[in-house]
Design a protein that fits this description.
Blueprint lengths: L14 H12 L9 H24 L1 H4 L2 H16 L2 H7 L5 E4 L5 E5 L10 H22 L1 H4 L3 H29 L27
Antiparallel strand pairs: 1-2
């Protein structure tokens, strides 16, 4: 007959496990009383950790008042928040959808999940990178006057920034249409619009 008082071998040296087992069998709520030296050791460890954190804050204080550091922290925090980090953590979302070819080699068969309520972890990183790159380019163009003294370099930098923003926007819209196929709005004008100089207009512009 199986003995109900048996304790697992890996738990026999754990006082908490032993007391928990005995309390369950006897219906008691006896708490474990630790020796003084163990309590003292735990408190010393706690105070050492707190002291180390205080010393660390004092050492890095010159960096904490730096605006660039906080801007970097804000960028990283924003990137983490818009990539669906909490959803990926709670649902253990895979990076992408992987499959095997006829040679047994793994490859990515799907980067974006065609569903509004589900996602891969990797697609969040892709969209987050696109959004952050777009915002940084806008910030770069707004500071072109401070970054370049030559007017020609300013124009070139702003022109390159506008082109890069346009390409990023098209990539973002392509990702968005995978999740929402019904979305057909385009950045470009409709095909039936007349293109060219003003003298080709139909009379709406004087």
């Amino acid at each position: 007959m199986e003995n109900k008082w048996l304790i697992k071998k890996d738990e026999i040296f754990d006082a908490y496990k032993q007391l928990e087992f005995v309390n369950k069998q006897l219906g008691q709520e006896i708490e474990l009383s630790l020796p003084f030296y163990i309590v003292l050791f735990k408190n010393l460890v706690l105070f050492c950790v707190l002291a180390g954190l205080i010393i660390l804050v004092v050492k890095i204080r010159p960096h904490l008042v730096n605006q660039n550091v906080w801007m970097g922290i804000a960028h990283v925090s924003y990137a983490i928040c818009i990539q669906g980090f909490v959803y990926n953590l709670l649902n253990n979302a895979p990076m992408f959808r992987f499959e095997q070819d006829k040679y047994g080699k793994m490859y990515v068969s799907e980067y974006f999940m065609a569903s509004q309520r589900q996602q891969y972890a990797g697609e969040g990183y892709i969209v987050s990178a696109l959004v952050m790159a777009f915002g940084l380019l806008m910030l770069f163009m707004s500071r072109a006057t401070y970054n370049f003294d030559d007017p020609f370099k300013r124009r070139v930098s702003v022109g390159v920034g506008i082109l890069a923003c346009f390409l990023i926007l098209q990539a973002y819209l392509a990702c968005y249409r995978i999740k929402n196929p019904w979305y057909g709005t385009s950045f470009m004008p409709p095909r039936h619009y007349i293109r060219g100089p003003i003298n080709r207009d139909q009379g709406n512009v004087i």
